Amino acid sequence: MGWRCPIIMITELSAQPRTTLGKGHARRSRLSESIPAVIYGKGVDNKTLNVNVREIEKILRTKLGKNTLINLKVEGDKDYTVLIKEYQGNVLSRRPIHVDFWHVTENQEVEINVKVNLVGKAPGLLNGGVLAVISHSVKLNCQANSIPGELDVDINTLEIGQSIHLSEVKLPTGVSSRPGYNPTIVAMTEEKEIVEETAVPVEGAEGAEGAAAAPATADGKAPADGKAAADGKAAADGKAPAAGKAAADGKTPAAGKASADKSAKPAEKSGGKKG
Fold first, then answer.
1. Engineered SS bond to 232: which of 56, 216, 220, 243, CB 3.0-4.6 Å?
2. Least confident of 106-110, 116-120, 217-221
Protein backbone atom coordinates (compact mmCIF):
# COMPACT_ATOMS: atom_id res chain seq x y z
CA MET A 1 0.00 0.00 0.00
CA GLY A 2 1.30 3.46 -0.80
CA TRP A 3 0.41 7.09 -0.77
CA ARG A 4 1.08 10.11 -2.91
CA CYS A 5 3.02 12.98 -1.40
CA PRO A 6 0.96 15.96 -0.29
CA ILE A 7 0.72 18.77 -2.80
CA ILE A 8 1.16 22.15 -1.12
CA MET A 9 -0.21 24.76 -3.48
CA ILE A 10 -2.02 28.01 -2.86
CA THR A 11 -4.10 29.50 -5.66
CA GLU A 12 -4.91 33.20 -5.91
CA LEU A 13 -8.56 34.15 -6.46
CA SER A 14 -10.13 37.61 -6.61
CA ALA A 15 -13.57 38.40 -5.19
CA GLN A 16 -15.81 41.44 -4.91
CA PRO A 17 -18.20 42.23 -2.05
CA ARG A 18 -21.84 41.65 -2.95
CA THR A 19 -24.03 44.41 -1.58
CA THR A 20 -27.25 43.64 -3.46
CA LEU A 21 -28.95 40.35 -2.61
CA GLY A 22 -31.81 38.49 -4.26
CA LYS A 23 -32.40 36.12 -7.17
CA GLY A 24 -32.68 38.91 -9.72
CA HIS A 25 -29.25 40.30 -8.90
CA ALA A 26 -27.77 36.77 -8.87
CA ARG A 27 -29.16 36.10 -12.38
CA ARG A 28 -27.73 39.39 -13.70
CA SER A 29 -24.36 38.54 -12.16
CA ARG A 30 -24.27 35.14 -13.84
CA LEU A 31 -24.83 36.77 -17.25
CA SER A 32 -21.52 38.57 -16.72
CA GLU A 33 -19.87 35.27 -15.64
CA SER A 34 -19.86 36.38 -12.03
CA ILE A 35 -21.50 34.02 -9.54
CA PRO A 36 -22.56 34.59 -5.93
CA ALA A 37 -20.43 33.18 -3.14
CA VAL A 38 -20.27 33.21 0.64
CA ILE A 39 -17.37 32.88 3.06
CA TYR A 40 -17.72 31.56 6.60
CA GLY A 41 -15.66 29.80 9.23
CA LYS A 42 -13.79 30.26 12.45
CA GLY A 43 -12.67 33.81 13.14
CA VAL A 44 -14.56 35.45 10.28
CA ASP A 45 -17.99 36.95 9.88
CA ASN A 46 -20.13 35.61 7.07
CA LYS A 47 -19.57 37.62 3.92
CA THR A 48 -21.42 37.59 0.60
CA LEU A 49 -19.21 37.89 -2.47
CA ASN A 50 -19.05 37.66 -6.25
CA VAL A 51 -16.38 35.53 -7.98
CA ASN A 52 -15.59 34.72 -11.60
CA VAL A 53 -17.10 31.40 -12.66
CA ARG A 54 -14.25 30.62 -15.08
CA GLU A 55 -11.70 30.90 -12.26
CA ILE A 56 -13.77 28.53 -10.11
CA GLU A 57 -13.97 26.01 -12.99
CA LYS A 58 -10.18 26.11 -13.38
CA ILE A 59 -9.73 25.31 -9.68
CA LEU A 60 -12.22 22.42 -9.81
CA ARG A 61 -10.37 20.90 -12.80
CA THR A 62 -7.04 20.68 -10.95
CA LYS A 63 -5.82 17.50 -9.26
CA LEU A 64 -6.82 18.74 -5.81
CA GLY A 65 -10.16 20.16 -7.01
CA LYS A 66 -12.22 21.29 -4.00
CA ASN A 67 -9.21 20.56 -1.76
CA THR A 68 -7.18 23.34 -3.36
CA LEU A 69 -5.97 25.85 -0.78
CA ILE A 70 -7.06 29.30 -1.99
CA ASN A 71 -5.83 32.77 -1.08
CA LEU A 72 -9.07 34.73 -1.55
CA LYS A 73 -8.34 38.41 -2.20
CA VAL A 74 -11.50 40.37 -1.41
CA GLU A 75 -11.63 43.81 -2.97
CA GLY A 76 -11.53 46.51 -0.30
CA ASP A 77 -10.89 43.90 2.40
CA LYS A 78 -8.10 41.59 3.53
CA ASP A 79 -7.03 38.21 2.13
CA TYR A 80 -8.57 34.96 3.41
CA THR A 81 -7.20 31.42 3.26
CA VAL A 82 -10.12 29.25 2.19
CA LEU A 83 -11.19 25.88 0.81
CA ILE A 84 -14.23 25.27 -1.39
CA LYS A 85 -16.61 23.66 1.08
CA GLU A 86 -19.29 23.01 -1.54
CA TYR A 87 -20.73 24.44 -4.71
CA GLN A 88 -24.00 24.24 -6.61
CA GLY A 89 -24.04 23.44 -10.33
CA ASN A 90 -26.54 24.09 -13.09
CA VAL A 91 -28.59 20.94 -13.70
CA LEU A 92 -28.06 21.17 -17.49
CA SER A 93 -24.69 22.83 -18.07
CA ARG A 94 -23.10 21.64 -14.77
CA ARG A 95 -21.43 25.05 -14.45
CA PRO A 96 -21.12 26.36 -10.88
CA ILE A 97 -23.83 28.82 -9.92
CA HIS A 98 -22.94 29.33 -6.23
CA VAL A 99 -19.86 28.66 -4.08
CA ASP A 100 -19.36 28.26 -0.33
CA PHE A 101 -15.84 29.12 0.90
CA TRP A 102 -14.63 27.74 4.23
CA HIS A 103 -12.15 29.95 6.03
CA VAL A 104 -9.20 28.00 7.49
CA THR A 105 -5.66 28.59 8.67
CA GLU A 106 -2.78 26.80 6.98
CA ASN A 107 -2.01 24.63 10.02
CA GLN A 108 -5.66 23.98 10.90
CA GLU A 109 -6.77 20.34 10.87
CA VAL A 110 -9.55 19.71 8.35
CA GLU A 111 -11.51 16.67 7.21
CA ILE A 112 -11.59 16.33 3.43
CA ASN A 113 -12.44 13.76 0.75
CA VAL A 114 -9.35 12.38 -1.02
CA LYS A 115 -9.57 10.45 -4.30
CA VAL A 116 -8.41 6.83 -4.38
CA ASN A 117 -5.86 5.79 -7.01
CA LEU A 118 -5.37 2.03 -7.60
CA VAL A 119 -1.78 1.02 -8.31
CA GLY A 120 -0.61 -2.24 -9.90
CA LYS A 121 -2.41 -5.27 -11.35
CA ALA A 122 -4.26 -7.68 -9.12
CA PRO A 123 -3.42 -11.38 -9.68
CA GLY A 124 -7.06 -12.24 -9.05
CA LEU A 125 -7.90 -10.74 -12.43
CA LEU A 126 -5.76 -13.36 -14.16
CA ASN A 127 -7.77 -16.08 -12.41
CA GLY A 128 -11.12 -14.79 -13.64
CA GLY A 129 -11.91 -12.45 -10.76
CA VAL A 130 -13.79 -9.16 -10.98
CA LEU A 131 -12.29 -6.01 -9.43
CA ALA A 132 -14.97 -3.99 -7.60
CA VAL A 133 -14.09 -0.46 -6.48
CA ILE A 134 -16.24 0.18 -3.41
CA SER A 135 -14.93 3.62 -2.39
CA HIS A 136 -13.71 6.08 -5.03
CA SER A 137 -12.71 8.53 -2.29
CA VAL A 138 -12.15 8.44 1.47
CA LYS A 139 -12.42 10.98 4.28
CA LEU A 140 -9.09 11.94 5.82
CA ASN A 141 -7.97 14.39 8.50
CA CYS A 142 -4.90 16.54 7.92
CA GLN A 143 -3.60 20.08 8.07
CA ALA A 144 -4.96 22.44 5.44
CA ASN A 145 -1.48 22.94 3.96
CA SER A 146 -0.79 19.17 3.74
CA ILE A 147 -3.77 17.81 1.84
CA PRO A 148 -2.83 14.71 -0.22
CA GLY A 149 -3.50 14.91 -3.96
CA GLU A 150 -4.50 11.23 -4.13
CA LEU A 151 -4.34 8.15 -1.94
CA ASP A 152 -2.48 5.34 -3.72
CA VAL A 153 -3.75 1.83 -2.97
CA ASP A 154 -1.52 -1.08 -4.01
CA ILE A 155 -3.53 -4.02 -5.43
CA ASN A 156 -0.58 -6.16 -6.60
CA THR A 157 -1.38 -8.92 -4.06
CA LEU A 158 -5.17 -8.87 -4.27
CA GLU A 159 -6.60 -12.36 -4.86
CA ILE A 160 -10.16 -13.59 -5.35
CA GLY A 161 -12.14 -13.33 -2.12
CA GLN A 162 -9.89 -10.60 -0.67
CA SER A 163 -10.54 -6.91 -0.05
CA ILE A 164 -8.60 -3.85 1.08
CA HIS A 165 -9.83 -1.54 3.84
CA LEU A 166 -8.61 1.94 4.71
CA SER A 167 -6.87 0.62 7.84
CA GLU A 168 -4.58 -1.45 5.57
CA VAL A 169 -3.36 1.59 3.62
CA LYS A 170 -0.28 3.46 4.80
CA LEU A 171 -1.15 7.12 5.29
CA PRO A 172 1.35 9.99 5.03
CA THR A 173 2.72 11.63 8.14
CA GLY A 174 0.21 14.02 9.66
CA VAL A 175 -2.74 12.39 7.85
CA SER A 176 -5.23 10.18 9.70
CA SER A 177 -8.82 8.96 9.64
CA ARG A 178 -11.39 9.46 12.36
CA PRO A 179 -11.86 6.58 14.87
CA GLY A 180 -14.25 3.87 13.73
CA TYR A 181 -14.08 4.95 10.08
CA ASN A 182 -12.71 2.02 8.05
CA PRO A 183 -14.45 1.71 4.68
CA THR A 184 -13.77 -1.05 2.16
CA ILE A 185 -11.87 0.50 -0.73
CA VAL A 186 -11.65 -2.35 -3.23
CA ALA A 187 -12.60 -6.04 -3.39
CA MET A 188 -11.87 -8.95 -5.71
CA THR A 189 -14.96 -11.07 -6.34
CA GLU A 190 -15.46 -14.31 -8.23
CA GLU A 191 -17.12 -13.96 -11.59
CA LYS A 192 -20.56 -15.58 -11.62
CA GLU A 193 -21.42 -17.75 -14.60
CA ILE A 194 -24.67 -16.86 -16.30
CA VAL A 195 -26.56 -20.09 -17.09
CA GLU A 196 -29.31 -19.83 -19.68
CA GLU A 197 -32.34 -21.73 -18.46
CA THR A 198 -34.04 -24.03 -20.99
CA ALA A 199 -37.63 -25.12 -20.54
CA VAL A 200 -37.78 -28.92 -19.95
CA PRO A 201 -41.03 -30.69 -20.86
CA VAL A 202 -42.75 -32.19 -17.82
CA GLU A 203 -43.99 -35.74 -18.06
CA GLY A 204 -47.77 -35.86 -18.46
CA ALA A 205 -47.96 -32.26 -19.64
CA GLU A 206 -49.49 -33.29 -22.97
CA GLY A 207 -52.19 -35.32 -21.23
CA ALA A 208 -52.91 -32.40 -18.95
CA GLU A 209 -53.46 -30.19 -21.98
CA GLY A 210 -55.92 -32.74 -23.41
CA ALA A 211 -57.71 -32.87 -20.08
CA ALA A 212 -57.96 -29.11 -20.07
CA ALA A 213 -59.47 -29.19 -23.55
CA ALA A 214 -62.12 -31.77 -22.58
CA PRO A 215 -64.20 -29.52 -20.31
CA ALA A 216 -64.31 -26.94 -23.08
CA THR A 217 -65.93 -29.53 -25.39
CA ALA A 218 -68.27 -30.68 -22.64
CA ASP A 219 -69.39 -27.13 -22.11
CA GLY A 220 -70.10 -26.88 -25.80
CA LYS A 221 -67.69 -23.97 -26.45
CA ALA A 222 -66.39 -24.42 -29.98
CA PRO A 223 -63.10 -22.64 -30.82
CA ALA A 224 -64.42 -20.82 -33.90
CA ASP A 225 -68.16 -20.60 -33.73
CA GLY A 226 -70.10 -20.56 -30.50
CA LYS A 227 -73.51 -21.30 -32.04
CA ALA A 228 -72.97 -25.03 -32.29
CA ALA A 229 -72.48 -25.16 -28.54
CA ALA A 230 -76.09 -25.95 -27.66
CA ASP A 231 -76.07 -29.14 -29.72
CA GLY A 232 -72.72 -30.14 -28.31
CA LYS A 233 -73.90 -29.56 -24.76
CA ALA A 234 -77.00 -31.64 -25.26
CA ALA A 235 -74.98 -34.45 -26.75
CA ALA A 236 -72.47 -34.36 -23.95
CA ASP A 237 -75.13 -34.41 -21.24
CA GLY A 238 -76.81 -37.36 -22.96
CA LYS A 239 -80.20 -35.62 -22.97
CA ALA A 240 -82.31 -34.97 -26.03
CA PRO A 241 -82.93 -31.31 -26.71
CA ALA A 242 -86.31 -30.02 -25.57
CA ALA A 243 -88.90 -29.69 -28.32
CA GLY A 244 -89.69 -26.13 -27.31
CA LYS A 245 -86.04 -25.12 -27.48
CA ALA A 246 -85.63 -26.68 -30.91
CA ALA A 247 -88.71 -24.76 -32.11
CA ALA A 248 -87.27 -21.55 -30.76
CA ASP A 249 -84.03 -22.16 -32.60
CA GLY A 250 -85.80 -22.90 -35.86
CA LYS A 251 -88.37 -20.10 -35.40
CA THR A 252 -91.17 -22.71 -36.03
CA PRO A 253 -93.84 -23.54 -33.43
CA ALA A 254 -93.23 -26.89 -31.76
CA ALA A 255 -95.56 -29.72 -32.79
CA GLY A 256 -96.39 -30.55 -29.21
CA LYS A 257 -97.31 -26.94 -28.48
CA ALA A 258 -99.66 -26.75 -31.53
CA SER A 259 -101.47 -30.00 -30.53
CA ALA A 260 -101.92 -28.71 -27.01
CA ASP A 261 -103.52 -25.50 -28.31
CA LYS A 262 -105.96 -27.42 -30.56
CA SER A 263 -107.08 -29.82 -27.84
CA ALA A 264 -107.69 -26.92 -25.45
CA LYS A 265 -110.21 -25.16 -27.72
CA PRO A 266 -112.80 -28.03 -28.04
CA ALA A 267 -112.70 -28.46 -24.29
CA GLU A 268 -113.82 -24.84 -23.87
CA LYS A 269 -116.73 -25.42 -26.39
CA SER A 270 -118.06 -28.46 -24.65
CA GLY A 271 -117.84 -26.68 -21.33
CA GLY A 272 -120.00 -23.88 -22.76
CA LYS A 273 -122.75 -26.24 -23.93
CA LYS A 274 -123.04 -27.78 -20.51
CA GLY A 275 -123.64 -24.41 -18.95
1. 220
2. 217-221
Region 10-104: CATH code? 2.40.240.10
> What are the domain boundaries of the chain?
10-104, 111-190, 214-249
Which fold, 111-190? Answer: RNA Polymerase Alpha Subunit; Chain A, domain 2 (2.170.120)
Alpha carbon separation from 89 to 17, 52, 58, 174, 254 (Å, rounded) = 21, 14, 14, 33, 88
Q: Among 2-11, 25-34, 187-196, 245-254, name the most confident range.
A: 187-196
How far apart, in whole angstroms, are the C-alpha atoms of residue 22 and residue 154? 50
Question: CATH topology of 10-104 equal to that of 111-190?
Answer: no
The answer to whether 85 and 111 are in contact (CB under 8 A) is no
Q: Could you read off the pLDDT of 52-83 as tens digits, one per residue? A: 999 999 999 998 999 999 999 999 999 999 99
Best CA proximity match to 17, nearest among 36, 31, 32, 33? 36
